[in-house]
Design brief:
The protein is α/β, with parallel strands linked by helices and 200 residues long. Helix content is 40%, strand content 20%. Helix 1 runs parallel beside helix 3 and helix 5 crosses helix 6.
Length: 200
């Protein structure tokens, strides 16, 4: 349910479980973490989804059985954050729950106009993954982070862009837009790209 394609040094990992709103099982999260860990030599990694939803977060049955508090979420977001190359979340639709962590860990987030963003972890009786509030706060500030995590608000793409939660709203093919953004990094000397990322 995770599809990986490699175009030279550009890797694309696609969540492909559209019949379940791309909700994530432990197996899928482990696959994503393994891809991110293996992508240390890739120039760029793009995360995207199949269908109209990027991911609804954890598979509810597995969440109740312990997935909601598993360390696999932190393993995944930590591996993405540690990449020396460029990481892009190409959000083909709504981003919800724990799936927010992998997008927050990316260098760049782009989304289609109809995307919604929400993280109803408090309502479900769980804490967010440890690194997620800090990464969200760094992007949008503490008050707006509380608006999402404590106020339970669904943020539309336009508002998410105004907040700084996403970096661009893309009309059309969001994956192709991500490929275009990654093209210069993929073509550059890896030490130059990694050096620029470290300087940023």
């Amino acid at each position: 349910m995770i599809e990986l394609t490699k175009d030279d040094d550009l890797w694309v990992a696609k969540i492909n479980r559209p019949d379940k709103a791309n909700s994530l099982t432990h197996e899928m999260l482990t696959q994503l973490a393994e891809i991110a860990e293996a992508a240390q030599d890739a120039r760029a990694l793009i995360l995207t989804g199949e269908g109209k939803v990027f991911s609804a977060g954890a598979d509810l049955e597995e969440a109740r059985a312990g997935l909601a508090t598993s360390d696999v979420w932190e393993r995944l977001s930590g591996a993405i954050a540690a990449l020396p190359g460029l990481s892009i979340a190409a959000l083909n639709g709504t981003l919800a729950g724990g799936a927010m962590g992998m997008a927050l860990a990316c260098d760049i987030r782009i989304a289609v106009p109809g995307a919604k963003f929400f993280y109803p972890v408090m309502k479900l009786g769980f804490l967010p993954q440890p690194s997620d509030p800090g990464r969200m706060r760094a992007l949008i500030g503490p008050a707006r982070t509380k608006l999402i995590l404590m106020g339970g608000q669904k943020i539309l793409a336009e508002e998410a862009y105004a907040f700084g939660l996403i970096d661009r709203i893309v009309e059309g093919d969001v994956l192709e837009a991500a490929r275009e953004i990654a093209a210069d990094t993929a073509a550059a000397k890896p030490e130059i790209a990694a050096g620029i990322k470290a300087m940023c």
